[in-house]
Design a protein that fits this description.
single chain, alpha+beta, six-stranded mixed sheet, two-stranded antiparallel sheet, 8 strands, 34% strand
Length: 129
């Protein structure tokens, strides 16, 4: 039987809905998609376009990873949701440097018609424990 643990990490961003920051099952952490909101205010999206929003999403993911005792080096899969696919290259320019060289995860990037709180980008992760 696989042990399942639910995590609402201390110091993690306040959630925009009824969910945990991550759920651990077997050898993996499944990290909830993070939004471009400040850690203490889940209702307001950061200003500055796709670059600023991607940076905030990645910083929020880092808060969750830190709370799990993990890092971007352990990420095996990422799923990126973009409202505007014209933002793809600019999002990537911010996203890539968060991963140590040679440690980019596999990834799916999905175009969507809208995201919570009016965000332009959301990213979730699967992380090896």
């Amino acid at each position: 039987m696989i042990e399942i643990m639910r995590h609402l990490v201390e110091g993690g961003p306040k959630t925009v809905g009824p969910f945990q920051h991550a759920v651990s099952a077997g050898d993996f952490h499944f990290v909830t998609g993070q939004m471009p909101t400040m850690p203490d205010d889940p209702t307001t999206v950061v200003e500055g376009g796709i670059e600023a929003q991607t940076r905030r999403v990645m910083d929020n993911l880092k808060l969750v990873l830190d709370g799990l005792g993990s890092s971007f080096e352990r990420v095996v899969f990422a799923r990126v949701y973009l409202v505007n696919f014209q933002d793809f290259d600019r999002m990537n320019a911010v996203y890539v440097p968060y991963f140590p060289e040679g440690c980019l995860p596999s990834r799916t990037c999905i175009g969507v018609t809208g995201l919570a709180v009016g965000a332009l980008v959301e990213i979730d992760l699967v992380v090896a424990r």
